[in-house]
TrEMBL record:
<dbReference type="Pfam" id="PF18289">
    <property type="entry name" value="HU-CCDC81_euk_2"/>
</dbReference>
<dbReference type="InterPro" id="IPR026295">
    <property type="entry name" value="CCD81"/>
</dbReference>
<dbReference type="GO" id="GO:0005815">
    <property type="term" value="C:microtubule organizing center"/>
</dbReference>
<protein>
    <submittedName>
        <fullName>CCD81 protein</fullName>
    </submittedName>
</protein>
<dbReference type="InterPro" id="IPR040673">
    <property type="entry name" value="CCDC81_HU_dom_2"/>
</dbReference>
<feature type="domain" description="CCDC81 HU">
    <location>
        <begin position="11"/>
        <end position="83"/>
    </location>
</feature>
Amino acid sequence: LPVVFPGNKELEPLKYSKVAMAAAMSRQKVEGCIQGTTSLLSHCLVKGHNIALVLKEVGLLLIEGTMVRLNFYQDFLERLSGKENLEKVVFKVPHVLDMMASPVVPVASLSFSGRVITFP
């Protein structure tokens, strides 16, 4: 049964078998990887470590103390909105550039502290 949160938002269990099919891996391997990653992520958060979670082809989720920030890769945003639309948005709202990351820039340079544990 899904868990219901305020605002009628539901949390449903992750369907490991669907992830396994999409990743062409066994269900057991997928479940082990996901549970291992979430366990390590939880441990790091409890210890107060700064974390960068790399979301392949999407961007970086940076967690530093109580601050959480998602920086998107430019090519991801271009795929979503089209290059011309993204250029228009950046021209009208220049601070959108602050929300973008480059996959070739070191993750630590995007953090305030310069020190992060990076999850690939």
